[in-house]
Amino acid sequence: MRKLIILLAVILMASCSEYQKILKSTDYDLKFEKALEYYEAEDYMRASTLFQELLSVFMGTDRAEEVHYKYAYALFNMRDYFSSVHLFEEFVKRYPNSEYVEDCRYMIGVNYYQMSPNPRLDQTDTYKAIEAFQLFTNLFPNSSKVEEANKMVDELRNKLVFKSYLNAKLYYNLGTYMGNNFDAAVITARNSLDDFPDTKYREELSFLILDSLYIQAVNSVPEKEEDRLRRTLDEYYAFINEFPESSYMKDANKIFEEVTKLLKKYN
Questions:
Q1: What is d(CA 27, CA 99) in angstroms, rounded to the nearest whole number?
Q2: Which of 99, 109, 141, 155 could in theory staple to 133 by disulfide, Cβ–Cβ 3.0 to 4.6 A?
Q3: Is the pLDDT score of 68 beyond 90?
Q4: Which of 240, 229, 237 is nearest to 263 (CA)?
Q5: pLDDT of residue 11
Q6: What's the confidence (pLDDT) of residue 4?
Q7: Residue 1: its pLDDT value, please?
């Protein structure tokens, strides 16, 4: 075991020594060959360092596209998605007729997909990923990667749905804290249903709207009470028509009973 450790240490030192010589070399053909070797061996750290230097050296030559393309992939494989997506975006602008353009368009979406954060955080990268994948499928509808791109778009859209659902719930849970958050809950929930009509949270969001309207109505100032009660009643009928077997039906019916009782004084 001791001999094996010593042998591995010697090999590692020799490898590092060779790599340092390559870095200091002005033989760019050698650097290109070694960068490809490191890349194929999945030593992306060393490969990317060499590709970064060669990117400017080979600008305008027949090697430029390959260096740029593999440098972007090396960074992707190192999970440096921010730098990788920048290189892929730059590639499609610089080499619009390249054989690599289709894959680069796809990888732009993949990078943004990887950077897409938790639903509770800002979703700018999620929107960018969806936009990139949609552009990819429009430009290359027959690509073998379209199916996978569409799967990722569905996943990203579900994240946006959940984000909008969380926003509506947040306003609802805040209640009257520092203002009337129930109104904001209704607006946010309606926007969510408009943007994502097939959401799996549709029933819960619909009841959230009904309950928010009810809470506002029963706590309303007299001059707004009747109008708000009638809006709640309209929402109740819309809810039971869409969800006649809803798990919220018991609560919905209680709202109906209370609202109709309060409306009697206006008949």
A1: 28
A2: 109
A3: yes
A4: 229
A5: 45
A6: 47
A7: 56
Q: Over the range 209-227, which residues count as b (16 or more CB within 10 Å of their CB) and which as e?
A: bbbbbbbbbeeeeeeebee
Burial class (CB in 10 A: 0-12, 13-18, 19+), 52: middle
Check if the beta carbon of residue 82 is closer than 8 Å to that of residue 115.
yes
Angle subtended by helix axes 101-115 and 124-139, to nearest 10: 160
Contact 125, 115 (CB under 8 A): yes
Residue 51: strand, helix, or coil: helix
Q: Report how far residue 99's alpha carbon sits from residue 33's, in angstroms, rounded to the nearest whole number.
A: 21
pLDDT exceeding 70 applies to what percent of the chain? 94
Among residues 194, 120, 190, the alpha carbon closest in space to that of 160 is found at 120
Helices (H), the chain: 2-24, 28-40, 44-57, 64-77, 81-94, 101-115, 124-139, 146-174, 181-195, 202-218, 222-242, 249-263
pLDDT at 14 over 80: no
Query: 10 Å Cβ neighbour count for 189?
Result: 27
Other C-beta atoms lying within 10 Å of the C-beta of residue 69:
22
Q: Across residues 175-198, what is the average pLDDT?
A: 87
Q: What is the dihedral of CA 26, 30, 36, 37, to 10 degrees?
A: -120
